[in-house]
Structure formats: structure tokens, C-alpha cells
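Table S2 (continued). Query chain:
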Amino acid sequence: MAEEPKSTSNKHSARKTTERSSTTALRQSSLLEKSGHLLALFWAISAATVCASNSGLTQWLESKTQTSFFQMRGVVAPPENIVILAIDEQSLSLPKQYYQSNPQKYADLEPLQSTPYKRAAYAKVIEQLMKAGAKGVALDILFDQPSTYGVADDQQLKSALQHYAGRVTLAAEIYEDVSLPQGALVQLNQPIPELWSEPRSFGLTRFPLDPDGKIHRLGSEYPKILAEKYEGKNANSEVFSTGMLSFAEAALQAAGVKYPRVGGNQINYFGPGGTFDAIPFWYVLDPESWNSNLQGGKVFQNKIVLIGGTAALQHDFHGTPFADSWLYPQPMSGIEVHANALATLMTGRAIKSAIPLALVRGLFVLGLVGITFMGVVKSSKRGLSRFGWAIAAATAWCTVSYVGFVYGQLILPTAVPMIALASVVFLT
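Corresponding output:
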């Protein structure tokens, strides 16, 4: 038999070596791809589990995202029939200066000479506003103790409240003290009985805080949260069964304003502090300001007037999506939060979760991340290219969530899916 040439033998040997190397490389590539798939699946399941758990971290991430959406949207025009009568720095200082300079000329400012103001001042303001044609008046001031100026002072305010019974809303609050040795104290603080009239209008002024330390939800959620917190515990159950409305709800009811019930529980903020028209409180009591600045009261006609403090001395400031951030560093006064809540209800634009059940949200995220991953894997084999597609997918989902939030008043799970979409393909 003829001997095979060495050159031919070497070619066969090289070919076999190449084939073996190629097979090994394919096996390694297949193994890496399967490992990547499993890792990506694990990441998707993890993201879904985080959403379904609705943990404090998840809520914090989503609240931060909603804050970003508000700030991206910017300021929108609020309803024109809401006016804030602000107890501001002017109202705390100027009336005293004017009165002391000429008590006879500025006699109408006498009730504003010290803080807290005499309740006679609020009585006169209520009379002025209602005669001017205001739909309703709501005072974010807690009258839970007798006036320090005597019984006659309380009587003046009661007379005004009786005259416009049911059209003037007073503040009430659920007070929670968790520092007591014997356990938490939960009680309802409301106006003293000496100020009650029939029908009366009281509204709860507190808002729940979200994990990011900001107010996102409407005041009507606060008693619900407390009721769940103290369910089965030794707490004052009567506090949770009063059926008292939130301050915004009570103000709308007192003004006779019917509004659509959309089922949302979050405030649709119109902008930072100063978005709503604000008028210094003392203008109403000063005849000159009333006639010139306030056009004889015409600015209040057919308006809901909210009265509350905006001065630093009152310490009534809160974090909101338009406050305590790098873009909007100033906190928002409580009365402005109430104005946003009232406007949210009035316009029927309360924000709600698009997927209320946490378990269903988790399944949704699992499907979203899983389907996106499969689509990206089929479209590209290279890691860098996949990562680009993943970032594009995360950006697209952020856009969808933003549009749903701003134009549909719907909250879609956003932060966790975006992190998963941007990361899962990078790991493969």
C-alpha cells in the first residue's frame, strides 16, 4: 500500500484540531449563554419579587420616580376658584406697626396685635368673605382650646360660624404619640364644643408621609393607615370610626362643590409654593387694602378661600414633590398642600395605581422584563449591543410610565423595572 504523503496527514491533523477547538468553543459559548439566560431569569424574578413585596425600599424608589415625573412636567395652572388667605410675615408684623402708629385710623387691625390672633379677627374675616360672595371658607387653624382672650372672644367666632353654618370648615386632627411608656396614644383633636354649630364642617388636616419623607397621598388616607396600624391593639377605636372627612373633602362639601370620584389616592400637585393665588390675611381687615388691593372683595366672589399660615414662625412646612429637592429646595406650607389636595379632588385628577395589587404588579414586572430580555437576545448576540438595547428598553418604559402618570394619572411600576431592564441583559 502506498504511504500517505506527510503534507496530507498534517492537513487532516490540523483540521481535526480545529474542529475540536471549534466544538469546545461552541460548547463554552453555549454554556455561557445558558448561564447568562439563567442569571437574567434570576434577575427578572428578583425584580418581580421586589415589586410584589411592596417593601419600604420599593416604595421609596417609586416615590422618588414620581417626584422626578412631577418636576419633569413642571408647573401647570391651578383652578382659578381657589384662593389662599395667607397668615404670612406681613400679616404678623405690619398690622401691629400700623395700629401702634395710629390706633384710631387702624382700629380694624386691633385683633391682630398679638399671636395667636384673637378669634374675633377670624369672625370678621369670615363675615367679610361670605358677604363678598365666597363659596366657602376653610380655616387650617386648630381651635381645640378656649381662647386665651376670654369667653367673649370665642362667642364672636361662634356667632359667625352659626350665621354661616355648614359653609365654614374648621380644622381637626388625629394626634398620635408613640413615646409614652404605656404605649401609643391616639386621640381626635377637634374644635371646642363652644364653637360647634349645626350643620358643622370639620376636616382632618394631617397627611400620611411616604418612605421618601414627602406627602404624596391625600389626607383621606391618613385615618385608614392608622386604623390598619392599630388594628387589634389597645388604641382608641372611636378615633377611626368618626367618619370625619379630610380637610379638602370637607371644604368642598361646605362650598357645595360636587366633584368626580375617580378612586385615586394621591395628590396631583400643580407646582411649588406660590402656584396658587395667595393674599395676605390682614388685607381683609384693613379697609384701604380691602377696597384697593381686593377690589372691595370681588377677588373672592365664587371662590373657595383657604386660610392658613405661610410664615416661618408657624412651623407648618412639609416635603412634597415640589419641595425639599435640588430643583425646588423650599418646603411647602401646609395650606398650600391643602390647596393642591382640594384642586386635585375638584378637577377629578387624583393619581392612582394602575395595578393596585402588589402580587399582580410583581407578575407584570416579571413578564415585562422577561419578554424584553428574550426580544433583545434574539436581536443581538454581542454584550455591548445588548446593553444598548437594554438601555433603550428602560428608557422606553420610563417614557411610557411618564406619559401614563402625567396624562392618565396612573402609576405604573417604574423604578424597579427600569433597573432590571438596564441590568439584566448586561449580565448575559
